[in-house]
Design brief:
This protein has helices at residues 3-14, 91-102, 126-141, 148-163, 170-177, 221-235, 249-255, 262-286, 290-306, 313-324, 351-366; strands spanning 20-29, 41-42, 44-57, 62-67, 74-77, 110-116, 182-187, 193-197, 203-209, 328-334, 341-347, 371-374, 382-383. By secondary structure, it is of the alpha+beta class.
Length: 386
């Protein structure tokens, strides 16, 4: 839907025009998976797909939630005590309202209308997009003046405490702080970050939606988090560390005997080696070595598949195809896994043929088609001009 169409639909639903329009992108993580909650470095970028929010104040002292993508609507009184009591979409923005309410920020009634063009459950951070979007809109509408960086941090807290998912800072940070044509090298422990220009030419980053939906809250995400904390606790018997990503692969191997559960050992091995892969990917990017980056992506997927065990038949089918395709130099699942998306580095000349061949192959193996697209690397959350 265009912004004009959204404006008309808002007025049709709420019988008044919207007074503000906002957009927050989704994100793709180039490299560094499942290490954001282990204090590692990640390399995400914001994409051109995302979530739109139109707002207008009301005199009824209520927050009204409506959305193009979902039929559920909701209404909550301003100043109430809020809690998540279901799985509906509106709990993500409500969690942000709850955060501001607890911080004694004065909020008034709002009519809220959301629309997203991110595939739901695809691993492109639709939940972080809607959280950051809500926080940014509240800050703008009520002149709270909170920075984008602080918005990312508060939305992580909402995800952890209100939604109940032990995620790290990466998703919220990427969609809040994205920069056009740059990836963000983000230290998830300190939130220190730098922007690295990303010019993949003559290759393109292709995003492949497996069309197998996944939900972080319902997946084994929290289980993996607990396994990492167990590994960290046991390594601390001999190592003075705060996070698993405080050590490199060599140090881990010297102390791996401390981890008594072999499954937990595999999880920790992925985390430590993935963090090293981010460092190698940074070097490859800065040297313009796309072939080296491609090999790092393949290695990341193998680790996510065999050590962290968060891939699956659908994602593996995509990567298996990529390995055999002449114009593709690297691929891996991206996001939390258990379905969702993969990314591939594909030569520009082969992009269309790659998409067609992969879709046909995937349909034959899995039984339904995948969706292949490219996306510009975009800015983070923003106010849309009237």
């Amino acid at each position: 839907m265009t912004i004009d169409a959204l404006q008309k639909e808002f007025e049709n639903r709420y019988k008044q025009p919207a007074t503000g329009s906002f957009f927050c992108p989704g994100r793709v993580n180039l490299i560094g998976e499942h290490i954001d909650y282990n204090g590692g470095q990640v390399m995400p970028f914001a994409i051109s797909l995302g979530t739109y929010l139109l707002v207008a104040p009301n005199n009824d002292n209520v927050f009204r939630f409506q959305c193009v993508n979902f039929p559920e609507t909701a209404e909550f009184n301003v100043g109430d005590k809020y809690r998540k009591s279901g799985k509906e979409w509106f709990y993500y923005p409500l969690g942000v309202i709850d955060y501001f309410t607890q911080k004694q920020q004065h909020l008034g009634g709002l009519d809220l209308f959301f629309y997203g063009n991110l595939p739901i459950g695809s691993g492109l951070s639709s939940s972080a997009s809607i959280e950051v979007l809500m926080a940014y809109a509240l800050s703008q509408v009520f002149n709270i003046g909170i920075s984008k960086k602080d918005i990312a941090l508060l939305c992580k807290e909402v995800e952890n405490k209100f939604i109940g998912v032990n995620s790290g800072i990466m998703d919220q940070f990427a969609v809040a702080m994205g920069k056009q044509n740059h990836v963000i090298l983000l230290n998830c422990d300190t939130v220190e970050h730098i922007y690295i220009p990303f010019n993949a030419s003559p290759y393109k980053v292709m995003v492949i939606n497996s069309n197998k939906q996944r939900s972080l809250a319902e997946s084994k995400y929290n289980e993996r988090y607990a396994e990492c904390m167990e590994a960290l606790s046991q390594l601390k018997q001999e190592l003075s560390i705060h996070q698993l990503c405080d050590i490199d692969t060599g140090t881990f191997q010297k102390h791996a005997h401390l981890i008594t559960n072999p499954v937990v050992g595999k999880r920790a091995y992925h985390v430590v080696t993935e963090n090293d892969r981010v460092k190698a990917a940074t070097e490859a990017l800065q040297n313009g070595d796309m072939e080296a980056l491609g090999q790092i992506l393949y290695a990341s997927h193998e680790s996510l598949k065999n050590m962290y065990e968060v891939s699956g038949r659908e994602l593996d089918a995509i990567i298996d195809f990529c390995k055999t395709y002449n114009g593709c130099i690297g691929a891996r699942m991206t996001g939390a896994g258990f379905g969702g998306c993969a990314i591939a580095l594909v030569h520009e000349e082969h992009a269309d043929a790659f998409a067609e061949s992969l879709t046909q192959y995937y349909n034959g193996v899995v039984g339904y088609p995948c969706e292949v697209f490219t996306s510009a690397i975009s800015e983070g959350v923003s106010l849309l001009e009237a």
